[in-house]
C-alpha cells in the first residue's frame, strides 16, 4: 500500500457506508473486473449488498449476495465460434446481440426469487454502484433507494452513456465500440463510425430501453420514462480504461479512468505442473487463452490443426487453456489444461508472448506484465481493443478466418522479436506509471462521493443542456441568419446603387 493511501486512510472521515451494487448484465467477466474493489471496500468496513449473476461461492465479511445466477450458465454457452463467424458478416450484429442479452437478463432478474425477497426488505443505502452497460432494467432501484449513483464500466464508455456526463465521443477520431479502428480514420471509416454510433444509440433508446421500461412498470410499478432524469443525476463514472490501451479521450471531471483495477498488486505462486513447464522451457513459453466465454470444443478443427502445426515447429513451448481433456494431434511442446492462473503466468519472466481473443481483462494484464500479444478478436469490444493495441505496438492482429500455419508462424516471429519485446516493456512502464494505483483511485472517489453528498459540483453544465444548445445549433442558426441578412442588405444596397448609377448615366446621355 503506498504512502499516499496510508495518509489518506488516517485522515479520512468517512464512516462505514451501506453500499448497493447492481450488475444487471450476466457476463461474469464484467463483474470480476470490479470484484477486488468490492472486497477492498468491505475490508475498509463498508457493508455491500451485491445484486449480480456472479454470487461468491464462499462468504466474505461485510458482503451480502443477492444472486441472479439461474441463467448465467446458459448465457455463457451462447458464445461459440460458429455464431461468431456468422456475426461478423453483419456490421450491426454486435449492437443487436447486446439488446438480446439485455432482454433475456432483465426478464430473468425480474423473475428472480432472491431479488423479490430482497426488495421486500426495508433498506437504506448511502451509495449505489451500478454497471452501465447494455440495459436499464434495474434503474428503478435508483428511484427506490434515492442514493448517489456511481456508474461502473468494465470497458470503454458505451455510445449511449456519454450524455449522462455531458460528453460525447467524437466519431471523427474516437472509434465506436465494436469498430476495429484507431483514432486516425479515413473518410469512409468516419462515415461508418458515425453511422455505427447513431445505430447503437438508436438500438438502446428505441429497442432496449422500452422493453426494460415495460418490465419495470409491470413488476415494480415504476415508469422509467417518467424518471428519465435518474441517470442524468449520476455522480461519477469509473471506467476500466487507460490511454495506453484505449486511446486518449476527453472526459469531464466526474469520469475517472481506473484501467487495470482488477490486476493484483503481486503475483501468486504457480501450480507445480505449470511452474515446472515454464521453468523447464529454455527458449520461453507462449500462453494461449481465449477467455472463459468462448469454449474450446467449438474451436474450428481445421484452424486448430494449423495452430498445432505452427506450434510444433517452435523452439518455445506452449501453454494452451483448453476445456477438453485431450487434443488430437497435440505436439509434445504443447501443454493443455482446463484452467490456468492467467495473470501469474503472464508476469512470469519466461513467458514471451500471449495469444488472446482481445478481451480487455487479458489485454490489460498482458500490458501490465510487458508481454506482446497476438490478438484474434471475436466479438464485442475485442476488435477495438485489438486495433488500439496494434496501433501502439503492443501486439499484432490475426483474424481466425485467415489463420494458416504460415500466417501464425509469421505473427509469432514478429511478437517474439526483440523489438516487440522492448515495445511491450515500454507500454508496461507507461501503464504502471501513475500517482495512485487504480484501486486506491477507485476507493478514494467512491468515498469522496459519499462524503460530499453525491458531489454535484463535479458534473458539468452540459448534462442539463438541451441538444440544440449543446451543439450550438441555436447560435449557428443565429449567426447564419445574421450573415444572410447582412449579405442580403449588402446585395440590396449594391443593386439599388447600381440602378441609380445606370439611371443617372442614361439621363446624362439624353441631355
UniProtKB/TrEMBL annotation:
Membrane topology type? Single-pass membrane protein
UniProtKB keywords: Glycosyltransferase, Membrane, Signal, Transferase, Transmembrane, Transmembrane helix
Judged by the first EC level, this protein's enzyme class is transferase
Localization, per the record, is: Membrane
Catalysis: reaction(s):
glucuronate acceptor + UDP-alpha-D-glucuronate = acceptor beta-D-glucuronoside + UDP + H(+)
Q: Taking the first listed entry, what is the main subcellular location of this protein, grouped into a coarse class?
A: membrane
Q: What EC identifiers does the entry list? A: 2.4.1.17
Q: Which family is it part of? A: Belongs to the UDP-glycosyltransferase family.
Recorded protein name is UDP-glucuronosyltransferase
Source organism per UniProt: Brassicogethes aeneus
